[in-house]
Amino acid sequence: MKILHIYGNMQHYDYGLEVLLKRVRNVFAELGVENQDVNLGVVHPPYYDGETTQAIDGIVESIKNADGLVLACTSQLSAPSALMQSFLEYLEHPDYHQTFSEKHCLLITLSQNGGEKSALEYLARVVQLLGGYVVAQMGLQAHHAAGLEDSGVGEFVDKTAEDFYRATHQRRKYVIPQDFGTKDFNNIAAPADIPAGVATGLTGNAAIPAAANGGITSDPLLHAGANHLHSSLTDQQEQEIDEISRLISEKYKGGDLPAPAANEPEFPQKIGGTPVGLPPSLSAPLSPPINLAPATPPAPVEPRLKTARQITQNLPHYFQPQLSSGLQAVIQISITGEEAFEGFLYIHSTECSYSEGAAPAPDIIIMADTAVWMDVLKNKHTAQKAFMIGGLKVRGDFVLLTKFDTLFKLEN
Fold first, then answer.
1. Distance (Å, rounded) from C-alpha 7 to C-alpha 39?
2. Between helices 116-129 and 82-90, what is the axis angle to 10°?
Protein backbone atom coordinates (compact mmCIF):
# COMPACT_ATOMS: atom_id res chain seq x y z
CA MET A 1 0.00 0.00 0.00
CA LYS A 2 1.36 3.42 -0.99
CA ILE A 3 0.34 6.84 0.31
CA LEU A 4 1.48 9.97 -1.50
CA HIS A 5 2.08 13.12 0.58
CA ILE A 6 1.61 16.34 -1.43
CA TYR A 7 2.41 19.41 0.63
CA GLY A 8 3.05 23.08 0.03
CA ASN A 9 5.95 23.77 2.38
CA MET A 10 7.44 27.28 2.26
CA GLN A 11 10.51 27.98 4.37
CA HIS A 12 9.16 31.11 6.06
CA TYR A 13 5.60 29.84 6.52
CA ASP A 14 6.05 26.32 7.85
CA TYR A 15 4.39 26.78 11.28
CA GLY A 16 5.47 23.22 12.14
CA LEU A 17 4.05 21.46 9.08
CA GLU A 18 7.14 19.31 8.61
CA VAL A 19 6.98 18.14 12.25
CA LEU A 20 3.31 17.29 11.87
CA LEU A 21 3.85 15.38 8.62
CA LYS A 22 6.72 13.43 10.16
CA ARG A 23 4.39 12.17 12.86
CA VAL A 24 1.81 11.14 10.24
CA ARG A 25 4.47 9.35 8.17
CA ASN A 26 5.65 7.44 11.24
CA VAL A 27 2.11 6.19 11.90
CA PHE A 28 1.84 4.94 8.33
CA ALA A 29 5.31 3.37 8.42
CA GLU A 30 4.40 1.39 11.56
CA LEU A 31 1.37 0.06 9.66
CA GLY A 32 3.57 -1.12 6.79
CA VAL A 33 2.68 1.66 4.38
CA GLU A 34 5.07 2.98 1.74
CA ASN A 35 5.32 6.78 2.01
CA GLN A 36 6.17 8.99 -0.97
CA ASP A 37 6.62 12.78 -0.77
CA VAL A 38 5.98 15.58 -3.24
CA ASN A 39 7.15 18.93 -1.89
CA LEU A 40 5.52 21.62 -4.01
CA GLY A 41 8.03 24.10 -2.58
CA VAL A 42 10.79 22.20 -4.37
CA VAL A 43 8.85 21.47 -7.57
CA HIS A 44 7.47 25.02 -7.59
CA PRO A 45 5.14 24.62 -10.60
CA PRO A 46 4.42 27.81 -12.55
CA TYR A 47 1.01 29.42 -12.25
CA TYR A 48 -1.61 27.60 -14.26
CA ASP A 49 -2.42 29.29 -17.58
CA GLY A 50 -4.34 26.49 -19.28
CA GLU A 51 -1.28 24.48 -20.32
CA THR A 52 0.22 21.31 -18.84
CA THR A 53 3.81 21.09 -17.60
CA GLN A 54 6.24 18.22 -17.27
CA ALA A 55 6.46 18.70 -13.49
CA ILE A 56 2.69 18.29 -13.07
CA ASP A 57 2.71 15.29 -15.41
CA GLY A 58 5.07 13.53 -13.01
CA ILE A 59 2.93 14.35 -9.95
CA VAL A 60 -0.24 13.18 -11.69
CA GLU A 61 1.42 9.88 -12.56
CA SER A 62 2.42 9.42 -8.91
CA ILE A 63 -1.15 10.15 -7.80
CA LYS A 64 -2.53 7.47 -10.13
CA ASN A 65 -0.12 4.90 -8.66
CA ALA A 66 -0.95 5.77 -5.05
CA ASP A 67 -3.66 4.13 -2.94
CA GLY A 68 -4.25 7.23 -0.81
CA LEU A 69 -3.32 10.92 -0.80
CA VAL A 70 -2.32 13.33 1.93
CA LEU A 71 -2.81 16.99 0.95
CA ALA A 72 -1.11 19.25 3.50
CA CYS A 73 -0.40 22.97 3.46
CA THR A 74 -0.27 26.06 5.60
CA SER A 75 -3.16 28.50 5.76
CA GLN A 76 -2.58 32.04 4.52
CA LEU A 77 -5.40 34.58 4.97
CA SER A 78 -7.82 31.72 5.77
CA ALA A 79 -7.03 29.99 2.46
CA PRO A 80 -4.63 27.21 1.38
CA SER A 81 -1.11 28.31 0.47
CA ALA A 82 -0.57 29.67 -3.05
CA LEU A 83 1.54 26.62 -3.88
CA MET A 84 -1.32 24.24 -3.10
CA GLN A 85 -3.92 26.34 -4.90
CA SER A 86 -1.72 26.61 -7.99
CA PHE A 87 -1.23 22.84 -8.08
CA LEU A 88 -4.97 22.12 -7.70
CA GLU A 89 -5.81 24.50 -10.54
CA TYR A 90 -3.83 22.29 -12.92
CA LEU A 91 -6.24 19.42 -12.24
CA GLU A 92 -8.91 21.39 -14.10
CA HIS A 93 -7.05 20.64 -17.35
CA PRO A 94 -8.85 17.97 -19.46
CA ASP A 95 -5.73 15.77 -19.41
CA TYR A 96 -5.91 15.56 -15.61
CA HIS A 97 -9.65 15.54 -14.88
CA GLN A 98 -9.75 11.87 -13.71
CA THR A 99 -6.71 12.19 -11.44
CA PHE A 100 -8.60 12.40 -8.12
CA SER A 101 -11.50 10.14 -9.09
CA GLU A 102 -12.34 7.88 -6.07
CA LYS A 103 -9.00 8.65 -4.43
CA HIS A 104 -9.04 8.52 -0.61
CA CYS A 105 -7.71 11.81 0.78
CA LEU A 106 -6.47 13.02 4.16
CA LEU A 107 -6.53 16.83 4.34
CA ILE A 108 -4.23 18.77 6.70
CA THR A 109 -4.06 22.53 7.15
CA LEU A 110 -1.90 24.41 9.63
CA SER A 111 -2.20 28.10 10.50
CA GLN A 112 -0.21 30.44 12.68
CA ASN A 113 -3.15 31.59 14.79
CA GLY A 114 -6.39 31.01 12.86
CA GLY A 115 -7.95 30.36 9.46
CA GLU A 116 -7.15 26.64 9.22
CA LYS A 117 -10.83 25.66 9.15
CA SER A 118 -11.62 27.86 6.13
CA ALA A 119 -8.59 26.49 4.30
CA LEU A 120 -9.73 22.96 5.12
CA GLU A 121 -13.21 23.63 3.74
CA TYR A 122 -11.68 24.97 0.52
CA LEU A 123 -9.60 21.81 0.03
CA ALA A 124 -12.59 19.58 0.78
CA ARG A 125 -14.74 21.36 -1.83
CA VAL A 126 -12.07 21.01 -4.51
CA VAL A 127 -11.38 17.34 -3.76
CA GLN A 128 -15.10 16.49 -3.88
CA LEU A 129 -15.57 18.55 -7.04
CA LEU A 130 -12.84 16.45 -8.67
CA GLY A 131 -14.49 13.21 -7.54
CA GLY A 132 -12.21 12.36 -4.63
CA TYR A 133 -13.19 11.05 -1.18
CA VAL A 134 -12.46 13.27 1.82
CA VAL A 135 -11.91 10.48 4.34
CA ALA A 136 -10.30 12.47 7.19
CA GLN A 137 -9.33 16.06 8.02
CA MET A 138 -7.01 17.85 10.44
CA GLY A 139 -7.13 21.61 10.92
CA LEU A 140 -4.50 22.68 13.45
CA GLN A 141 -2.59 25.75 14.58
CA ALA A 142 1.12 26.28 15.14
CA HIS A 143 0.91 25.67 18.91
CA HIS A 144 -0.73 22.30 18.24
CA ALA A 145 2.18 21.23 16.05
CA ALA A 146 4.58 22.38 18.75
CA GLY A 147 2.70 20.28 21.33
CA LEU A 148 2.52 17.00 19.42
CA GLU A 149 4.04 15.16 22.35
CA ASP A 150 1.08 16.17 24.50
CA SER A 151 -1.29 13.25 24.91
CA GLY A 152 -4.31 15.08 23.50
CA VAL A 153 -2.82 16.51 20.30
CA GLY A 154 -0.56 13.56 19.54
CA GLU A 155 -3.34 11.05 20.14
CA PHE A 156 -5.67 12.98 17.85
CA VAL A 157 -3.12 13.03 15.02
CA ASP A 158 -2.32 9.32 15.44
CA LYS A 159 -5.98 8.28 15.56
CA THR A 160 -6.89 10.36 12.51
CA ALA A 161 -4.01 8.86 10.52
CA GLU A 162 -5.01 5.33 11.61
CA ASP A 163 -8.65 5.91 10.62
CA PHE A 164 -7.50 7.14 7.21
CA TYR A 165 -5.30 4.08 6.79
CA ARG A 166 -8.18 1.70 7.57
CA ALA A 167 -10.58 3.38 5.15
CA THR A 168 -7.98 3.43 2.38
CA HIS A 169 -6.83 -0.14 3.00
CA GLN A 170 -10.44 -1.38 2.91
CA ARG A 171 -11.12 0.71 -0.24
CA ARG A 172 -14.32 2.06 1.25
CA LYS A 173 -16.78 3.75 -1.04
CA TYR A 174 -18.42 7.03 -0.09
CA VAL A 175 -21.30 9.13 -1.31
CA ILE A 176 -20.16 12.56 -2.47
CA PRO A 177 -22.62 15.31 -1.33
CA GLN A 178 -25.03 16.43 -4.03
CA ASP A 179 -23.48 19.92 -4.05
CA PHE A 180 -20.48 18.32 -5.72
CA GLY A 181 -19.74 15.53 -8.17
CA THR A 182 -17.06 14.34 -10.52
CA LYS A 183 -16.49 17.13 -13.00
CA ASP A 184 -16.26 15.91 -16.59
CA PHE A 185 -14.30 18.58 -18.44
CA ASN A 186 -14.58 16.88 -21.82
CA ASN A 187 -18.27 16.03 -21.92
CA ILE A 188 -19.93 19.30 -22.89
CA ALA A 189 -22.64 17.84 -25.14
CA ALA A 190 -26.01 16.44 -24.12
CA PRO A 191 -25.87 12.62 -23.79
CA ALA A 192 -27.18 10.89 -26.91
CA ASP A 193 -29.41 8.53 -24.94
CA ILE A 194 -31.63 11.34 -23.59
CA PRO A 195 -34.89 11.63 -25.58
CA ALA A 196 -35.18 14.84 -27.56
CA GLY A 197 -38.26 15.97 -25.60
CA VAL A 198 -36.41 15.60 -22.31
CA ALA A 199 -33.30 17.43 -23.53
CA THR A 200 -35.40 20.49 -24.40
CA GLY A 201 -37.34 20.31 -21.15
CA LEU A 202 -40.53 18.82 -22.65
CA THR A 203 -41.83 15.30 -22.07
CA GLY A 204 -45.27 14.65 -23.50
CA ASN A 205 -47.68 17.20 -22.01
CA ALA A 206 -45.43 17.92 -19.04
CA ALA A 207 -43.01 20.82 -19.15
CA ILE A 208 -39.76 20.11 -17.35
CA PRO A 209 -37.35 23.07 -17.20
CA ALA A 210 -34.15 22.31 -19.05
CA ALA A 211 -30.82 22.93 -17.36
CA ALA A 212 -29.27 26.33 -17.81
CA ASN A 213 -26.37 24.90 -19.83
CA GLY A 214 -28.30 24.19 -22.99
CA GLY A 215 -30.41 21.28 -21.82
CA ILE A 216 -27.63 19.31 -20.13
CA THR A 217 -28.68 18.05 -16.75
CA SER A 218 -27.44 15.62 -14.16
CA ASP A 219 -30.93 15.08 -12.72
CA PRO A 220 -31.83 11.39 -13.20
CA LEU A 221 -35.53 12.29 -13.15
CA LEU A 222 -35.22 13.81 -16.62
CA HIS A 223 -33.86 10.56 -18.00
CA ALA A 224 -36.88 8.68 -16.70
CA GLY A 225 -39.50 11.04 -18.12
CA ALA A 226 -42.50 12.77 -16.58
CA ASN A 227 -44.05 9.60 -15.15
CA HIS A 228 -41.10 9.15 -12.84
CA LEU A 229 -41.63 12.62 -11.42
CA HIS A 230 -44.95 11.52 -9.94
CA SER A 231 -43.61 8.28 -8.52
CA SER A 232 -40.76 10.12 -6.81
CA LEU A 233 -43.02 12.41 -4.76
CA THR A 234 -42.56 12.06 -1.03
CA ASP A 235 -45.47 11.05 1.19
CA GLN A 236 -45.62 14.56 2.61
CA GLN A 237 -45.80 16.11 -0.87
CA GLU A 238 -48.60 13.70 -1.86
CA GLN A 239 -50.55 14.60 1.29
CA GLU A 240 -50.12 18.32 0.55
CA ILE A 241 -51.44 17.81 -2.99
CA ASP A 242 -54.44 15.86 -1.66
CA GLU A 243 -55.12 18.59 0.91
CA ILE A 244 -55.07 21.33 -1.75
CA SER A 245 -57.45 19.29 -3.95
CA ARG A 246 -59.85 18.80 -1.02
CA LEU A 247 -59.91 22.53 -0.17
CA ILE A 248 -60.62 23.50 -3.79
CA SER A 249 -63.38 20.91 -4.05
CA GLU A 250 -65.08 22.16 -0.88
CA LYS A 251 -64.78 25.82 -1.86
CA TYR A 252 -66.42 25.35 -5.27
CA LYS A 253 -68.88 22.59 -4.28
CA GLY A 254 -72.15 22.79 -6.20
CA GLY A 255 -70.74 24.81 -9.10
CA ASP A 256 -70.29 28.08 -7.20
CA LEU A 257 -67.42 29.33 -9.31
CA PRO A 258 -65.97 32.78 -8.66
CA ALA A 259 -67.87 35.56 -10.44
CA PRO A 260 -66.02 37.82 -12.89
CA ALA A 261 -64.79 41.16 -11.67
CA ALA A 262 -67.15 44.14 -11.85
CA ASN A 263 -65.72 45.65 -15.06
CA GLU A 264 -64.31 42.45 -16.53
CA PRO A 265 -65.54 41.91 -20.15
CA GLU A 266 -67.31 38.70 -21.09
CA PHE A 267 -65.48 36.20 -23.26
CA PRO A 268 -65.86 35.75 -26.09
CA GLN A 269 -66.48 39.47 -26.79
CA LYS A 270 -69.37 40.35 -29.09
CA ILE A 271 -69.49 42.72 -32.03
CA GLY A 272 -73.01 43.33 -33.26
CA GLY A 273 -74.38 40.46 -31.21
CA THR A 274 -72.05 37.83 -32.74
CA PRO A 275 -69.23 36.32 -30.73
CA VAL A 276 -65.85 37.20 -32.21
CA GLY A 277 -63.80 34.32 -33.56
CA LEU A 278 -66.56 31.64 -33.40
CA PRO A 279 -68.46 30.18 -36.38
CA PRO A 280 -72.23 30.77 -36.40
CA SER A 281 -72.89 27.12 -35.52
CA LEU A 282 -71.12 27.63 -32.20
CA SER A 283 -72.55 31.04 -31.33
CA ALA A 284 -75.82 29.57 -30.01
CA PRO A 285 -76.05 28.38 -26.39
CA LEU A 286 -74.84 24.86 -25.84
CA SER A 287 -77.42 22.23 -25.01
CA PRO A 288 -77.40 20.60 -22.60
CA PRO A 289 -75.48 23.14 -20.50
CA ILE A 290 -72.11 22.10 -19.18
CA ASN A 291 -72.14 21.14 -15.51
CA LEU A 292 -69.17 22.94 -14.06
CA ALA A 293 -69.60 21.43 -10.62
CA PRO A 294 -66.78 19.06 -9.73
CA ALA A 295 -67.42 15.41 -9.07
CA THR A 296 -67.93 14.18 -5.54
CA PRO A 297 -64.85 15.22 -3.57
CA PRO A 298 -62.52 12.31 -3.03
CA ALA A 299 -62.42 10.83 0.43
CA PRO A 300 -59.54 12.09 2.53
CA VAL A 301 -56.44 10.01 1.98
CA GLU A 302 -55.44 8.22 5.13
CA PRO A 303 -51.75 8.85 5.84
CA ARG A 304 -49.70 5.74 5.20
CA LEU A 305 -47.51 4.38 7.91
CA LYS A 306 -43.92 5.45 7.47
CA THR A 307 -40.80 3.53 8.25
CA ALA A 308 -37.89 4.96 10.20
CA ARG A 309 -35.93 5.21 6.98
CA GLN A 310 -38.68 7.17 5.21
CA ILE A 311 -39.05 9.64 8.08
CA THR A 312 -35.28 10.08 8.25
CA GLN A 313 -35.16 10.78 4.52
CA ASN A 314 -37.82 13.46 5.03
CA LEU A 315 -36.01 15.22 7.89
CA PRO A 316 -35.08 18.17 5.61
CA HIS A 317 -38.85 18.93 5.44
CA TYR A 318 -38.86 19.45 9.22
CA PHE A 319 -35.68 21.55 9.16
CA GLN A 320 -35.92 25.04 10.72
CA PRO A 321 -33.50 27.22 8.73
CA GLN A 322 -34.12 30.26 10.92
CA LEU A 323 -32.21 28.48 13.71
CA SER A 324 -29.21 27.34 11.68
CA SER A 325 -27.72 30.45 10.10
CA GLY A 326 -23.96 30.04 9.72
CA LEU A 327 -23.95 26.39 10.79
CA GLN A 328 -22.04 23.88 8.67
CA ALA A 329 -22.25 20.25 9.75
CA VAL A 330 -22.50 16.67 8.51
CA ILE A 331 -24.65 14.44 10.75
CA GLN A 332 -24.19 10.72 10.10
CA ILE A 333 -27.10 8.48 11.15
CA SER A 334 -26.44 4.74 11.58
CA ILE A 335 -29.48 2.66 12.48
CA THR A 336 -29.40 -1.02 13.42
CA GLY A 337 -31.98 -3.63 14.37
CA GLU A 338 -35.23 -4.30 12.54
CA GLU A 339 -34.62 -1.62 9.91
CA ALA A 340 -30.89 -1.16 9.41
CA PHE A 341 -29.72 1.71 7.20
CA GLU A 342 -27.18 4.55 6.97
CA GLY A 343 -27.52 8.10 5.74
CA PHE A 344 -26.33 11.60 6.53
CA LEU A 345 -27.73 15.11 6.80
CA TYR A 346 -25.69 17.88 5.17
CA ILE A 347 -26.40 21.27 6.76
CA HIS A 348 -25.01 24.32 5.02
CA SER A 349 -26.23 27.44 6.83
CA THR A 350 -29.96 27.63 6.08
CA GLU A 351 -30.05 24.62 3.74
CA CYS A 352 -30.38 20.94 4.63
CA SER A 353 -30.24 17.82 2.45
CA TYR A 354 -30.20 14.07 3.05
CA SER A 355 -28.11 11.42 1.28
CA GLU A 356 -27.93 7.66 1.63
CA GLY A 357 -24.74 5.93 2.69
CA ALA A 358 -21.72 6.93 4.77
CA ALA A 359 -20.44 10.50 4.84
CA PRO A 360 -16.73 11.00 4.06
CA ALA A 361 -15.99 13.02 7.21
CA PRO A 362 -19.02 13.44 9.49
CA ASP A 363 -18.94 15.91 12.38
CA ILE A 364 -21.09 13.58 14.47
CA ILE A 365 -22.28 9.98 14.19
CA ILE A 366 -25.62 9.09 15.80
CA MET A 367 -26.06 5.34 16.39
CA ALA A 368 -29.33 3.81 17.59
CA ASP A 369 -31.62 0.82 17.37
CA THR A 370 -34.64 1.17 15.06
CA ALA A 371 -37.14 1.31 17.93
CA VAL A 372 -35.19 3.99 19.82
CA TRP A 373 -34.69 6.09 16.69
CA MET A 374 -38.40 5.80 15.85
CA ASP A 375 -39.25 7.20 19.30
CA VAL A 376 -36.99 10.18 18.59
CA LEU A 377 -38.53 10.74 15.14
CA LYS A 378 -42.05 10.58 16.60
CA ASN A 379 -41.01 13.04 19.31
CA LYS A 380 -41.79 10.64 22.13
CA HIS A 381 -38.54 11.79 23.67
CA THR A 382 -35.64 13.97 22.54
CA ALA A 383 -32.36 12.73 21.10
CA GLN A 384 -30.62 14.03 24.24
CA LYS A 385 -32.90 12.00 26.49
CA ALA A 386 -32.34 8.89 24.37
CA PHE A 387 -28.62 9.41 24.86
CA MET A 388 -28.96 9.93 28.62
CA ILE A 389 -30.90 6.67 29.07
CA GLY A 390 -28.36 4.76 26.99
CA GLY A 391 -30.55 4.03 23.99
CA LEU A 392 -28.56 6.22 21.62
CA LYS A 393 -24.79 6.48 21.14
CA VAL A 394 -22.79 9.38 19.79
CA ARG A 395 -19.34 9.88 18.33
CA GLY A 396 -17.92 13.26 17.44
CA ASP A 397 -19.22 16.74 18.27
CA PHE A 398 -21.76 16.16 21.05
CA VAL A 399 -22.96 19.79 20.78
CA LEU A 400 -24.63 18.89 17.48
CA LEU A 401 -26.78 16.34 19.30
CA THR A 402 -28.09 19.09 21.58
CA LYS A 403 -28.92 21.15 18.49
CA PHE A 404 -30.67 18.29 16.71
CA ASP A 405 -33.83 18.60 18.80
CA THR A 406 -34.21 22.29 17.94
CA LEU A 407 -33.07 22.18 14.29
CA PHE A 408 -35.78 19.67 13.36
CA LYS A 409 -39.38 20.30 14.42
CA LEU A 410 -40.62 16.74 14.79
CA GLU A 411 -44.29 16.00 15.34
CA ASN A 412 -45.99 13.32 17.43
1. 5
2. 10
Q: Which of 169, 198, 228 is the last residue of a domain?
A: 169
Tens of pLDDT, residues 297-327: 555 544 455 899 999 999 999 898 888 877 8
What is the C-alpha to C-alpha distance for residues 314 and 327, in angstroms, rounded to an integer?
20
Residue-number span of the structural domain to which 71 is assigned: 2-169
Contact 115, 77 (CB under 8 A): yes
Per 3-state DSSP, the chain is made up of helix, strand and coil in percentages (nearest 5) of 40, 20, 40
Half-sphere exposure of 330 (CA within 13 A, CB side): 21
Question: Does residue 94 contact residue 26 with C-beta atoms inside 8 Å?
Answer: no
Phi, psi of 388 (to 5 degrees): -65, -35
Q: What is the pTM of this model?
A: 0.47
DSSP label of 59: H
pLDDT of residue 344: 93
Cα–Cα–Cα angle for 306, 308, 314, rounded to 5 degrees: 75
Query: Domain tally for the chain?
Result: 2
The CATH number covering residue 363 comes to 3.30.1050.10
Whether residue 195 has pLDDT greater than 50: no
Strands 364-369 and 392-396 turn out to be antiparallel
| Confidence band of 229 (pLDDT split at 50, 70, 90) | very low
* Residue 297, preceding peptide bond in cis (omega within 30° of 0): no
